[in-house]
Design goal:
The complex is a heterodimer of chains A (280) and B (254).
Chain A (H helix, E strand, L loop, with lengths): L6 E12 L2 E13 L3 E5 L6 H8 L7 E4 L2 E4 L2 E2 L5 H7 L4 E4 L3 H4 L6 H12 L4 H14 L5 H5 L8 H13 L5 E5 L7 H17 L3 E6 L2 H7 L2 E6 L2 E7 L9 H8 L24
Parallel strand pairs in A: 3-9, 3-10, 7-8, 8-9
Antiparallel strand pairs in A: 1-2, 1-4, 1-5, 5-6, 10-11
Helix pairs in contact in A: 4-5, 4-7, 5-7, 7-8
Chain B lengths: L1 E10 L2 E11 L4 E5 L6 H8 L6 E7 L2 E2 L6 H6 E4 L13 H11 L5 H11 L16 H13 L5 E5 L7 H18 L2 E6 L2 H7 L2 E6 L2 E7 H5 L6 H9 L5 H5 L6
Parallel strand pairs in B: 3-8, 3-9, 6-7, 7-8
Antiparallel strand pairs in B: 1-2, 1-4, 4-5, 9-10
The chains are: A alpha/beta (280), B alpha/beta (254).
Family (chain B): Belongs to the ABC transporter superfamily. Glutathione importer (TC 3.A.1.5.11) family.
Enzyme class (chain B): translocase
Membrane topology (chain B): Peripheral membrane protein
Chain lengths: 280, 254
């Protein structure tokens, strides 16, 4: 990994204003990201997705972001105008969402959607764009790219849909990809195949990746470094290869409560939460 | 307790179950594993009467099932569905959700039964008059289990009961299911896409692919990875996490 810092986040806070009072979703998250694969892991409500969305300025309208620093190279992400955002989103940072069923446009062919993503950021003619799109479908290992190019999202399987999503997000050649549970809706084997495609492309093109997931095991076998989040705080940061040396009781609890294939049917250890974990 | 012989089922022209044989002894726990579209949930749905077009023999408690199910069947066997967000009526209180099956079956004493059912799944009385949206996912799944238990069935058909839950909550619900089986002498058929969950919960396991059982194993065979069929081996390896070399060896089973 090079030591060059792509993204620097310091003391990120995300608060949502709701009728029932303020909800503090992200509380003081800090990290620096180089050209590496960073995993963010946590359970529902831990703030992992909101951290990812805040980086791309996708926080809902009732949310407020504050940070001491939120910098991508020398761009200050905290104070961009909508026009400036359009130069960053997709082109330099892009995001892969969880479920292709909801994140692809159902009434537009897959080819047209990929071309749209490409031409938004590259001035090329229609023929060249089509050529690029088909190459990209080929790169995500879709066997018959011409057929898929002309299909609508409902005509392809979930695994195929997520490959299309990856193709669309990678075609403008961004430097940073944020993948929010990109494979959780897929079967295990398909999940791994899709991750392998993402892995190869990110590696070949020298991109940085933030991989957000609830699955600690999976993330640690895939990423270089893992942040474990609990109630908006990062409770532990560990090298993925040293996961078994995790020190924080929350991380250990998450690992221990997984059922194992050891033929042991006795009760699983229950994760006992302590209030102090949420105080940072 | 449950014996299924040569079960075949169709959705229109689509042959979704092919000669499925299953035997579950009393107080046993049987696991069905497979990927989406393998037919694992369809087996449960056929037993519980939600599939019309099927052939073969299903014996529950030594009684052969016909095309329809009567009330005595549902007192004996109840189903718990995957998604606790979808399976509870959003505008009924927990009390009403739990009282309804008691009234349908005319059991009486609904007040006592509701309190007891909530207690069995580890929810205190304060949950009784809340609505489903006021509960967390894990609490909702406990209510779904309580609704099944309130008829004092002997068989629970569990369709991915924990796959919508966080791992820490999954552990709690799995422990609850193990305890209930011990204490109430229940018989389970559990469907899951997660090999580890089934290995933890079940004594006998069948691995399904495209409507067929491709392999049967005991929990200890699974623990040692002693699987013969290449499809089950692939599933077993996939459960081990991200390993580039393993992934390259995957074959499509379309």
């Amino acid at each position: 990994m090079s030591s060059e810092t792509l993204l620097s986040v310091k003391n990120l806070e995300v608060t949502f204003n709701t009728p029932k009072g303020d909800v503090h979703a992200v509380r003081g998250v800090s990290f620096d990201l180089g050209r590496e694969r960073l995993g963010i892991v946590g359970e529902s409500g831990s703030g992992k997705s909101q951290t990812g969305r805040a980086i791309l300025g996708l926080t809902a309208a009732n949310g407020k972001i504050t940070a001491d620093q939120l910098k991508f190279h020398d761009v200050d992400l905290a104070n961009l105008t909508p026009k400036q955002w359009r130069k960053v989103r997709g082109a330099r940072i892009s995001m892969i969402m969880q479920d292709p069923k909801y994140s692809l446009n159902p009434v537009m062919t897959i080819g047209d959607q990929i071309i749209e993503a490409y031409r938004e950021h590259h001035k090329v003619n229609a023929k060249e764009a089509r050529h690029r799109a088909i190459d990209m479908l080929d790169a995500v290992k879709i066997r018959d790219p011409e057929r898929v190019f002309n299909s609508y999202p409902h005509e392809v399987s979930g695994g195929m849909g997520q490959r299309v999503m990856i193709a669309m997000m990678l075609i403008p050649d961004p430097e940073l990809i944020i993948a929010d549970e990109p494979t959780s809706a897929l079967d295990v084997t398909v999940q791994l195949q899709v991750m392998a495609i993402l892995d190869d492309l990110v590696r070949d093109r020298g991109m940085a990746l933030i991989f957000i997931s609830h699955d600690l095991q999976l993330v640690s076998s895939f990423c270089d470094r893992v942040l474990v989040m609990y109630q908006g705080h990062v409770v532990e940061e560990i090298k993925a290869s040293a996961l078994h040396e995790a020190k924080h009781p929350y991380t250990k609890g998450l690992l221990n409560c997984l059922p194992k294939m050891d033929g042991d049917h006795s009760d699983l250890p229950i994760l006992e939460r302590e209030a102090s974990w949420a105080e940072g | 307790m449950i014996e299924i012989n040569k079960l075949n089922a169709w959705f229109d022209d689509n042959h979704v179950l092919k000669d499925v044989d299953i035997k579950v002894p009393k107080n046993g726990s049987f696991g069905l594993v497979g990927e989406s579209g393998s037919g694992k949930s369809t087996v449960l749905r056929t037993i519980t009467g939600l599939v019309d077009d099927w052939e073969g023999q299903i014996l529950v408690n030594n009684k052969e099932l016909g095309p329809t199910r009567d009330k005595t069947f549902y007192r004996l066997a109840q189903m718990v569905f995957q998604d606790p967000f979808g399976s509870l009526h959003p505008r009924h209180t927990i009390d009403r959700i739990l009282t309804e099956p008691v009234n349908i079956h005319g059991l009486g004493d609904s007040d006592i039964r509701v309190v007891q059912a909530l207690d069995q799944v580890g929810l205190d009385n304060s949950f009784r008059f809340r609505y489903p949206h006021q509960l967390s996912g894990g609490q909702r799944q406990r209510v779904a289990i309580a609704r099944a238990l309130i008829l004092e069935p002997k068989i629970l058909l569990l369709d991915e009961p924990t796959s919508a839950l966080d791992v820490s909550i999954q552990a709690e619900v799995l422990n609850l299911l193990s305890r209930l089986r011990r204490e109430l002498g229940l018989t389970y058929i559990m469907v899951s896409h997660d090999l580890a969950v089934v290995a933890h919960m079940c004594d006998d396991i069948a691995i399904m692919n495209h409507g067929r059982i491709v392999e049967r194993a005991t929990a200890s065979q699974l623990a040692d990875g002693r699987l013969e069929h290449p499809y089950s081996q692939q599933l077993y390896k996939a459960a081990g996490g991200y390993d580039r070399a393993v992934i390259d060896s995957f074959v499509d089973w379309d």
